[in-house]
Amino acid sequence: MRDKKQQTMTRSELDELQAERLREICQRVYEKVPAYTKKFDELGITPDDISHVEDVIKLPFTVKNDLRAAYPYDLFAVPISEIVRVHSSSGTTGQITVVGYTAEDLDMWSSLIARALDAAGADKSDIIQVSFGYGLFTGGLGVHHGVEHMGATVIPVSGGNTKRQIQVLADFGVTGFAATPSYALLVAETAQKMGVDFDDLPLRFGIFGAEPWSENLRTQLENAFGIEAYDIYGLSEVLGPGVGFECEQHDGLHINEDHFIIEILDTETLEPVEDGEYGEVAITTLTKQGIPLLRYRTRDISRIVPGECPCGRTTRRLERITGRSDDMLIIRGVNVYPTQIEQILLDIPEAAPHYQIILTKRGSLDDVEVRVELSDEVDFDEIKSLEAITKKVSGAIASALAVSVKVKLVEPGSIERSEGKAQRVVDLRGEGSQE
Ligand code: DLL
């Protein structure tokens, strides 16, 4: 295990380390970042009020809008001369936000990616194809430097040009593949059409993340590529990929707690929930120099996996992210996440793993339609079987989630494929649509 000492600390050792780092970071942002000075003053606290890890709850929250208001560099805690890299996140709505990294930050980031690769069984002898997008998105360059940091070989393919991806996977002796799960699915689908069989290749593991994905999609990717699939979590505001990662147990994402404090908050009261309960993930960065953030509200919904992990790491685990609170649908009072629908669809052989949820407005009511692509094996022109499949899909959703939704079957290949993050929810409610 890499960084074994840091990943296997006792809780009291970790508490002590986190408290020391928390005190430092509070001091630093209070002195260097006017927006935080103001937030501390408004709450009537100073860094001297922070001594223990539990004191984190005294600190102000940070939200996406704080980054927008600080655009581009006002939340930076170091002069721009110390920043060696900038990334940015576009978000689905509104203005982009900017994050900056010092050389030390990049080193830390790479070391955390190396921990994740190591947990997936990788070492120096591996050849890893990075098919996350390179550029302002943190996925490509983040994983890239982690691979180099561990001394393995990186193939920086970036996203897109899917046939080329398959050629590289097939010819370059690739043993590990990193991508968004939805893009990996497109690569698998395209390879199948090209008649490429991954089972004959040395490919052994996949590192997937940047969007929610279901357990059934994991199985599908593992079967398609003949690999073991590992989840990796992160967000550009607090780092990029590498905040948390799965070990061989595949039972939650180990948080790199020597660098981050994770809280799970009640989505209404914003009070911390009990361990094991679901809520919004908030993250405090403990070591970031460029842009340290206190209690960043991620809008991601998860919970802490109770108990210890047999892998030996003592770091707490975040259950795979169910979804973002922004993507949560409330269908006649029931909360539904797109990944729950995905999980159901992938159990239905007549459905392809491609779907979209369309939100429209009918009068004052929201209307939800699940568009499901048919698998290639089904004859799209046979109306009788289409009716039966529609019933089967809506019945499966109704029995699993206790909501009835409108299901529309669409032709194979008709739902737009993504080369990065898939858009699962299409919200047409603002457009006065009356579909
Ligand atoms: O997606 C960073 C990343 C790149 C993570 C590559 C993993 C792999 P952003 O573009 O800022 O950064 O988007 C962050 O994506 O708040 C989650 O909603 C979602 N997300 C990221 N990883 C996962 C995951 C990158 N493993 C947002 N499971 C986060 C579910 C994820 N959702």
In short:
This protein has eleven helices and 20 strands.
Shape: globular
Strand content: 15-25%
| Order of adjacent strands in the largest pleated sheet | 4-3-5-6-7-8-9-13
User: Percentage of helical residues?
Assistant: 25-40%
Q: Would you report the number of β strands?
A: 20
Q: Biggest sheet, open or closed, and with what strands and sense?
A: 8 strands, mixed
| Alpha-carbon Rg, integer | 22 Å
Bound molecules: 5'-O-[hydroxy(phenylacetyl)phosphoryl]adenosine
Tally of helical runs: 11
Secondary structure class reads: alpha/beta
Overall pLDDT score? 94
Task: Report on this structure.
- It is built from eleven helices and 20 strands.
- By secondary structure, the chain is α/β, with parallel strands linked by helices.
- The strands form five sheets. Strands 4-3-5-6-7-8-9-13 form an eight-stranded mixed beta sheet. Strands 10-11-12-14 form a four-stranded antiparallel beta sheet. A four-stranded mixed beta sheet has the order 19-18-17-20.
- A hairpin with a 6-residue loop joins β8 and β9 (253-255).
- It is globular.
- The protein starts with a helix and ends in an 8-residue tail after the last strand.
- Bound molecules: 5'-O-[hydroxy(phenylacetyl)phosphoryl]adenosine (DLL).
